[in-house]
Amino acid sequence: MPDERIPGKLIGAIVAVGSLAFIGILTETVMTVLFPQLMREFNVDTATVQWITTIYLLVVAATMPLSSYLNRRFKHRTLFLAAVALAVLGSLIMIVGHAFPVILIARVIQGMGSGVATPLMINIILEQSPKSKVGRLMGVGSLVITVAPAIGPTVGGAVSSILPWRAIFVIVIPIILLVSLPVGLKCVEQHRPTEEARLNSLQFVSIVLALCGLVMFLNQAGVAVSAAVSGGSATVSAVFAVVSLIVGLGALLFFGWSSKRSFSPLIRLGWLRDPMVLLHLIAYMLLPIVGIGFGYVITNVAQLSLGTSAFLSGALVLPGALIGAFFAPVGGMLYDRFGPVRPILGAFFAAICGPILLLVFSMRLTPVTLAGFYFIFGFGYSLGFSNIMTNALRNIAPQFMPDGNAVFNTCLQFGGAAGTALFSTILSVAQAGAGEEGSTTFRHATAVGGSWTFATMIGIVAIAICCLIAAFRIGAKRNSRL
Fold first, then answer.
1. Which helix (H) or strand (E) holds 102?
2. What does each C-alpha distance from 472 to 195, 301, 430, 445, 465 come to in angstroms?
3. Spatial distance between the Cα atoms of 318 and 312, rounded to a whole number of angstroms
4. What is the per-residue pLDDT across 342-372, written as a single tens digit (0 to 9) for each?
């Protein structure tokens, strides 16, 4: 009987690497609450200040595809130390930087650190966990993905109300150096040999162009639609969006074509021929559109429709974040005990009730009901989300797990960026021509935009559930033939 206890060093490694990923995602969402303050300090407009978040997402999305190559080529400890160095350097530049371009450089460095740390944490869990404990440890790992974006607005609102915004990064550095670094040096171990993998630079450039092009398309399409509805000039943004889409899709097609013909591809994609795994991947990309986009929607609807303060609007996501912190590992335990079908589908049938209730009460929401209905979604989402990736990767060959990890994490980042762009566009369209911010007509228009957004969320979650049902049916048919 094999020893199925969870090694103490594995827990320490997850804490060390996971804390780096958590800090990276947290600071990304913290910055969105600080946009008005940053616009005044650096004398930039809304379209410009959003690059603080957009460029971070672009760099993280571009770094994720490298994780398969990095995992095969370098030791875990080397990657961990690189992530620590990037996180500290980026934070130091954020503290001392007093020009907007310098702040953007810092965000690029921080994005690289997060792009290394997050897949490293997942690879350590998949490679070193006892088989009967994979689900619950993946649930622990998913706390980084689900909780950090949710509590970011709360932390940002709290810190900015009592301290300068740079204090966030002053606090972060000691945590990295005094907690993450020593624990990681002691606990991060290597359980498999490295390989002489080669970096296919042409494929790397093509996937970077693909991801950047698609994210920029979403960003600029939203700007163009908002400008057109409000009566402004949308020509430049529309042209930029179309060009970005063409470049992104063209580069993505080239990457897929090149990967099939390459002896040593950047990411091996053969495992995607399995329709069951592909359906899991589609659901895993769709759900973060809602899960990560919810933070933007709640804070904006609360402030612009219900008239709450920035601090209170950020605090409204906290109950849903806390329930996520508790139930993500519970969802993994249910997966380990009952298998994938009931824990995953049950979780998302519960999660979809949140946006349904928000849609029903959208024109008469209060801060309490807004937080309460999000709480329902957060409960179901955290209970089932990490199990999707866990179940998909269990159905591919072990040697392809780093490739699957890279693709799933990249789709997660893309889904999160898509959610913010999509929901901000919907709200902007609803608010166009509704008068000044704070007026009765503007608040009503925001509430209408909120109802459109909640309806869109319901559709996205429903499609994801259908994908998962189809995947489980394929799995059941395969098992019946055995």
1. helix 100-128
2. 35, 36, 38, 41, 11
3. 10
4. 999 999 999 999 999 999 998 988 999 998 9
